[in-house]
Amino acid sequence: MKIKVVELFAGVGGFRLGLEGFPKPESPNYEVIWSNQWEPSTKMQHASRVYEARFGSEHHSNQDIASIGSAEIPDHDLLVGGFPCQDYSVATTLHNSKGLIGKKGVLWWTIHRILSEKKNKPKYLFLENVDRLLKSPSNQRGRDYAVMLKSLDDLGYAVEWRVINAAEYGMPQRRRRIFFIAYHKSTSAYKKLLKSNKTDWLLKQGTIANAFPVRTDVSNCLDFELNGDLVSITETFNKDGKLSPFQNTGLMSQGKVHTLKTMASFEGKRTVLGDILQNGEVTEDFFIAEEDLPKWSYLKGAKKEIRKTAAGFEYNYSEGSMVFPDALDNASRTIITGEGGKSASRFKHVVHTKKGLRRLTPVELERLNMFPDNHTKLEGITDTKRAFFMGNALVVGVVGKIGAALYQQIGQSEVHDDSTT
Question: Is the CATH code 3.90.120.10 the one for domain 273-392?
Answer without folding.
Answer: yes
